[in-house]
Amino acid sequence: MPLLIPANAPDLPMKHIISLLLENEAGALSRVAGLFSARGYNIESLTVAATEDATLSRMTIVTTGSDDVIEQITKQLNKLVDVVKVVDLSEGEHIERELMLVKVRAAGKDREEMKRMADIFRGRIIDVTDKTYTIELTGTGQKLDAFIEALEEGAVLETVRTGASGIGRGERILRV
Amino acid sequence: MELTGAEITVRCLADEGVEYIFGYPGGAVLHLYDELFKQDRVKHILVRHEQAAVHAADGYARTCHKPGVCLVTSGPGVTNAVTGIATAYMDSIPLVVVTGQVPTHAIGQDAFQEVDTVGITRPCVKHNFLVKDVKDLAVTMKKAFYIATSGRPGPVLVDIPKDVTTARCEYFYPDKVELRSYNPVVKGHSGQIKKALGLLLEAKRPMIYTGGGIVLGDASADLAQLVRALGYPCTNTLMGLGGFPATDPLFMGMLGMHGTYEANMAMQHCDVLLAVGARFDDRVIGNPKHFFQEDRKIIHVDVDPSSISKRVKVDVPIVGDVKEVLGEMNRQLAAGSQKPDAAALKAWWTQIELWKARDCLKYDRTSAIIKPQMVVEKLYEITKGDAFVTSDVGQHQMWAAQFYKFDKPRRWVNSGGLGTMGFGLPAAMGVYLAHPDSQVVCITGEASIQMCIQELSTCKQYRMPIKIVNLNNRYMGMVRQWQEFFHGNRYAESYMDALPDFVKLAESYGHVGMRIEKPEDIEPALKEAFARKDQLVFMDFVTDQTENVFPMVPGGKGLSEMILV
Ligand SMILES: Cc1cc2nc3c(=O)[nH]c(=O)nc-3n(C[C@H](O)[C@H](O)[C@H](O)COP(=O)(O)OP(=O)(O)OC[C@H]3O[C@@H](n4cnc5c(N)ncnc54)[C@H](O)[C@@H]3O)c2cc1C
Ligand SMILES: Cc1ncc(C[n+]2csc(CCOP(=O)(O)OP(=O)(O)O)c2C)c(N)n1
Ligand SMILES: [Mg+2]
């Protein structure tokens, strides 16, 4: 069910996933990162890599802001000379995925429980020692958070997350 | 035939039609200087500090229709130039800044005179490039000129490592470049323009507020046509002065922190506001919350989408070039039959006349001590309103803006966005080179002028007969005024102690110096100065130390909450 927002609701900060295509050139990343810090915009995560077209990079930025702030962010990004295209994926249907590697304590009686938990979240155990498992998990940021929360306190030894990548659903395509 | 990177750079400048390059040599740019030496298409102007090179190129760009170009060496050359670059960036001035860099193999090694130029300047340029391969050099230069001058103009920097200036390749300078990631919108949406015109014609209390975009976009004739066809009041920002003729009866004066009472009141109380090439700066609308206590519809025309709805929400956004959009408005207005609401307009002008009657710019004309306003008024009379006027930053800047009535665009040259003291004199040098047969005046203060005073030497070398009007109040007047109003008269460090004798100083640089202490001497002194056509004259006016700039909208206050004299 869609959330009903009263017409006079204040312009609240919301999470947005912004996708960009930018020239695959030295310095392009620092222009984007510099823009966010210079203008005080928040970055939750930022991922970038080359695309099938080697001259282009694709970047996904997860940020939060009120509608006004998000409007300025997309305009300011568009203004960067290296940026070819910008879309706010959150404006339409989209898919979001993030990869997490998590090293957990897996000794004695915890070992079985840990494997079960990984299975429930469709994680894969990709490295094993006597005392630890390293689990690979993909999903939305929320799912990864949920996994961490589901584990017993003290079970997590180390986590590393890639930040979200996003893509439009169906025929929605971002290309030059 | 293969050319060196240095030859290519200089050839690019010449082929781009660059007349002057303002610069200062150093190790990383020696090959470039060597090539400049061997040719005579591009004239080099040697400044005395890199900040001045950029301000001079900036003053040149502001008053003619070409970008300004400068050349500085790596490291300290670049860091000295940063203030100039940021000044141009804030006011959207097209510049191409060529900087030397350490050789590519030395980059990142903390080499002698190495700084991360692209990193340091990134937040204050429209774009910048580091050229690592000589084969990219010519096309990068073309891109730099294209980006600097198109869309919302701005400074573009090209950083060239020393080994790239000696590497060789074939020279080819493209006529134009296309960038898939950069396509400024020029033509405004005609549906939006129609909507805007509809709103404007229904207005009961209309107001037209225009800024630097009119000047930058060369649209003052189109603006005048629209304003006069509608018969609506028009105000300009500090950057927009001259965009609409100041002597036109529809002109309301400047608005904002030191704008006129009538302009600010009309801005606050209008019901439809047309904003063109202006960016709702905090010095212009005061506290946005207070601004929105009144209900009004806002139409905003700007070539940069990010200027629209940045500080205030607008009802009809129009992204496009001012000249295109105003041209289309004029066409639609002429083609339609609807006319402004004459009765409502009459009532609105009656109100405005009442505000005007407040005479907000009055000052004591009988004072025995020189009032700075009077100096500017006399300057206006003696130059017949036709001089190019540069200014520094402070009270004198505001008096220049209030009392010199600019009827033409590109006559008023000042640092509005960054507010850079030291801008006035070097900017005047660039203006002079762009307009060697015109009167060029720099209105300054005893604090500001000392920030680039060394340029008196450049003025001597190139025989630049600039007239310097120093409104010497022995204070950082603008700072003192804030301290008087908001800090209990505690004049912390705002007194300019140990001032030089400006007359002797000017003379020591080989110029003419004059000190003027009495109001009755203002006019003869100005006349004498302008009669010295071939000489730089430094006029040191000893002015009233206690004079303040009125009206004033204090920080955080609303536009209609002015302090009046
Ligand atoms: C001491 C001091 C006091 C000041 N007091 C005042 C004051 O009282 N009043 C005041 O107005 N200012 C004042 N200023 C200046 C102020 O800080 C701003 O610099 C100024 O108000 C900005 O002017 P602007 O809105 O015209 O914008 P500009 O900085 O001139 O920007 C131009 C706008 O036009 C757009 N544009 C450019 N080219 C085109 C084109 N071809 N087509 C369409 N759009 C285009 C740009 O995108 C931009 O949005 C003061 C500055 C100082 C230092
Ligand atoms: C480089 C720089 N430093 C500091 C300031 C802050 N500032 C603004 S106006 C001003 C005083 C200017 O004094 P003066 O040039 O004598 O002009 P006046 O206000 O007295 O006319 C100062 C210090 C500035 N604008 N620029
Ligand atoms: Mg002073």
Helix content of chain A: 25-40%
Which range does the strand content of chain B fall in?
15-25%
Distance between the termini of chain B: 70 Å
Helix share, percent of chain B: 25-40%
The unreliable regions of chain B are none
Q: What's the quaternary structure here?
A: heterodimer
| Rg over C-alpha atoms of chain B, rounded to the nearest angstrom | 24 Å
Mean of residue pLDDT values of chain A: 92
Element order, helices and strands of chain A? EHEEHEEHEEHEE
Specify the structural class of chain B. Answer: alpha/beta
Describe the sheet with the most strands of chain B.
6 strands, parallel
Contiguous uncertain segments of 5+ residues of chain A: 1-8
pLDDT averaged over residues of chain B: 97
**Which geometry of chain A do the CA atoms define?**
elongated
Ions, cofactors and other ligands present here are: flavin-adenine dinucleotide, thiamine diphosphate, magnesium ion
Q: Please work out how many helical segments of chain B DSSP would assign.
A: 22
Number of strands of chain A: 9
The DSSP helix count of chain A reads 4
Read across the widest sheet of chain B, the strand sequence of neighbours is 3-2-4-5-7-6
How big a fraction of the residues of chain A is strand?
35-45%
